[in-house]
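Model it.
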Amino acid sequence: MRRLWRRPSGWQVLWLTVVWTALWGHLSLGVVVSGAVVGTLVLVLLPLPSTSLGFRVHPVGLVAFLGGLLWDLARSSLRISWWALRPGPPPDTAIVTVELRSSSETMLMLTTMALSAQPGSLVVDARPGTGRMTLHVLGAGDEPQATAQRDVSRQEALVVGAFGTRTDKEELG
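Modeled.
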């Protein structure tokens, strides 16, 4: 027999209580209690279907990912600033295709977003079926393919460390 109701998550009730309190515009015991009651009723009477988002959040990996992302943002911003201000010809550019090790579409999307946020690189195409990503790279250097593959693999490892499932981590090796 199918259960008609499911016990609401404490995090969901807490979130709905915070939203309720924000909507009322002031903090009082009555607003908080009524928010918790309304939030619980909403979750019991209108339950959401259970879904798997295809990722898990790992706090230590998340800190490493954010630290690596901030470092990459700062480093690439300084490089772009230097190239813009220095005299001489513009830096070399290249279009390269790299292979991702993870087959997860979620990891592909998160890696694509992290790479696109960095100045000097742009994801031109990302293919979930093949795990290939095509990038436009500014300041490509002598071996743009090897450099791009190394940078993408490093970013993918940080993303999988922060959000990957067990299967994603196994695919990285």
